Amino acid sequence: MKALLLHDKGLWKDMKVEEIETPSPQKGELLVEVHAVGLNPVDYKTATNGMPAWSYPHILGLDVAGVVVETGKGVTEWKKGDRVVYHGDFTKKGGYAEYAIINAHTVSRIPESVSFEDAAALPTAGYTAYQALHRKLPFDQVNTILIHGGAGGVGGFGVQLAKLAGKTVISTASGHNHEYVKSLGADFVIDYREEDVNAKVLEITNGRGVDAVVDAVSRQSATDSLDALAYMGHMVYIAGAPDFTKIKSFTKVVSYHEIALAAAHQSNDVIAQKDFAVIGVDMLSLLEQGKLDAMLKETIRLEEVPKALSRLSERHVKGKIVAKII
User: Fold this and answer.
1) Distance, CA of 82 to chain centre
2) What are the residues whose beta carbons fall under 8 Å from the beta carbon of 45, sequence distance 6 or more?
3) Cα–Cα distance, 60 to 89 (Å, whole number)
4) Distance CA 197, CA 227 (A)
5) Which of 40, 72, 87 is nearest to 276 (CA)?
6) Using alpha carbons only, what angle is made at residue 7 by residues 2 and 12, rounded to the nearest 5 degrees?
7) What 8-state DSSP symbol labels residue 46?
8) Distance in angstroms (rounded) separating the CA atoms of residues 247 and 253
9) Are 205 and 230 in contact (CB under 8 A)?
10) Mean pLDDT throughout 146-158?
């Protein structure tokens, strides 16, 4: 099969499409013919330093949409021809290829009216946002929420899901992306380059602060955003834990929530892994009903992935980029 191969850590900008042996599914696995694969920052981040579990050449790509072509022993719930999407395990070979392997219990069925490209835009960013809002937060107790990076993947899905749940949504974005983030459902958008984000949040909330913050930007951003929280507020962090010493005991009584999809694959917790399939079904249903925008802004060819990842690394890509394989 053709695949985009990483020959050593740090060489992701030099990846090229080459021939490699097609894998075979083992017990409990599926062989999927890849139709589309989503690009994510985790691709270049893990490729920069490599992973101990990798053997080279390695194949990146976590967000795969395609068609089942073979089932491993013991798989009864899927058959050849089924349209599926999944979030992959980054310790294993991924989806920047014509075929890929995945554990059968983690995949979701793609409705006929949803394209492979839209489906492939969902998993890493969409499932992360879904976990943050619907698995970590006591969402019935959250009325106001600050979601950083509303023009990006996690932030954009987070804005949409929070608004669908009826929350007052504040987001951050560069000035030229404000209208786009508002179109996703944000009630207020703050230009993080030009404005004091925390001061603006306090102004919007009449000095109280927000019930929750979702931060997928950085450890420093999460730490800074602690000042935007109300009493008994919740900090959900994805790109690094905040400085927990900043909030003193017996003051705001903040709760902290870590999100790391990859940990479910490494945990050997089948229930946690099966939840990916549940989340996928729910988000695909929202897509099918027109209630969710996949935020697909660009479709590229497999050989164009390295340059697109380079642009992603500069942190100014709006929405999602997907590589169309078939």
Assistant:
1) 23
2) none
3) 10
4) 10
5) 87
6) 90
7) H
8) 8
9) yes
10) 97
Sign for the CA dihedral angle at 276, 295, 284, 167 comes to: positive
> Rounded CA gap, 220 and 243, in Å?
8
Q: Tell me the CA distances in angstroms from 25 to 6, 68, 94, 102, 277, one per residue in order.
A: 22, 11, 14, 8, 19
Tokens in use for 65? 């949409």
Residues 6+ apart with CB under 8 A from 111: 284, 285, 287, 288
- The two tokens of residue 282 are 């729910």
Residue 193's alpha-carbon distances to 1, 179, 279, in angstroms, are 45, 16, 34
**Structure tokens, 170:** 């504040």
Residue indicated by tokens 């080279």: 56
Find the range with the poorest average confidence among 145-154, 245-254, 313-322: 313-322
The number of CA neighbours under 13 Å toward the Cβ of 75 is 23
CA neighbor of 44 nearest in space, from 66, 19, 61: 61
Question: How confident is the model over 36-65, as pLDDT tens digits?
Answer: 999 999 999 999 999 999 999 999 999 999
What mean pLDDT is reported for the chain? 97
In degrees rounded to 5, what are phi and psi of residue 218? -170, 170
Side chain identity at 107, as an amino acid letter? V
Per-residue pLDDT tens over the stretch 240-297: 999 999 999 999 999 999 999 999 999 989 999 999 999 999 999 999 999 999 999 9
Residue 2 buriedness (CB in 10 A; 0-12 / 13-18 / 19+): middle
User: How far apart (Å, rounded) are the C-alpha atoms in residues 213 and 209?
Assistant: 10
The Cα–Cα gap between 158 and 263 comes to 20
